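It would be a great kindness if you could assist me with a short task in structural biology. The matter concerns a single protein, recorded as an amino acid sequence and a row of backbone structure tokens. Could you please explain, in whatever detail you think fit, how the structure tokens follow from the sequence? Thank you for your consideration; the sequence and its tokens are set out here:
___
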Amino acid sequence: MPGTLQIEIVKASQLTVADRVLWRAMVEANRDLASPYFAWEFTEIASRIVPQAAVAILTRDGRTIGYFPHQRRGSSIQPLGAPMNDYHGVIAMPGDAPPLAEVAELLGAPRLSVSAWVGPSGVGAHRETLMTVLPEEGYDAWYAERRRTWGKYFKDKERARRSLETELGQADVKRGLTDPAMLDHLIGLKRDQYARTSRHDIFACGWTRDLLHALMASEYEGFGASMAALWAGGKLTAIEYSLHAGDRYHFWFPAYEPGLARCSPGILLTMDTMRLGAEAGFRVFDFGFGGEGYKKYFCNATQAVREAVVLRPGMGSLLSDAAFGLLNTAAGGRGERLRTSVRRRWAAIEACEVTPANRLKGAAAAAVVAVRKATGASHAA
């Protein structure tokens, strides 16, 4: 019988060369861990930037069977880089990862919150991420198939490109951009978007911005982050920041000039990025979770993940702390969809904000939004 699973919590900088070699071997052997978020390089960089970062080393019978990079926020543990980490779980050989509930018990925290857990779970809600897997023939073959399947949609985008060029001038796209000033411009556009849509500003805390800059400055071979941008007549119309490793390209932070929405510059940039990315050797383009309608026209594959909040037995009352209590009360208990929205808002706030005061401030602002939604739902009913 296998021995008891044990855990040791260390800083990423304390991992040995042997640990790093094993980590990379696990990722290489386990196709479920193909996302750049599982790469050792992501953890190494993020651990230098993210407050209260650590790595759990899981061992059995004296043998290391896995690693779980994470961060602490008060009484909660989250995946390293949350709320921006789109995939997480135990880095392990196929079949070796313990289930989520066991990991939570080993960590010993009152609460473990995950939004996209990869691997054995047994708890939480099923979710799917969306991606495009290009055929061997490449981008042109993929586009031809999509155009046959969704002809009206892609013909409309071809018209949008002509409209953009008629209005502003010739369209030009570049990828692999690493200009810090352009990244700051993108972050500014995202912050404006968060303000318009009443979402928590994940960049207000500072460390999230620093993480994007550090990832983009990485010089690791086969791993990195960069931007793609679309100009029309010399005017910058859309930018997207992405993370990439191996043949996987993960679209991460898109933004476009709102005044040009009718020309779909963001979608045009996505298509051009895929075309140029395919030429550079990328074969899987990850779009993250669904929600935006355009993704169904692009994606032909999914990956199953789990969203869960695992509580230590007897610690359920911790979810009624002041900050979460504000949001929970504001939701008014009106439906599972609203409760899910409240839980996700709180998870983002808790992950971003390091101090209890800032978490409470963020929750208060989000509670106002929750009240408006609850009132609107009530009136609609």
Summary: The chain has twelve helices and twelve strands. The longest helix spans residues 356-380. Confidence is low (pLDDT under 50) at residues 315-324.
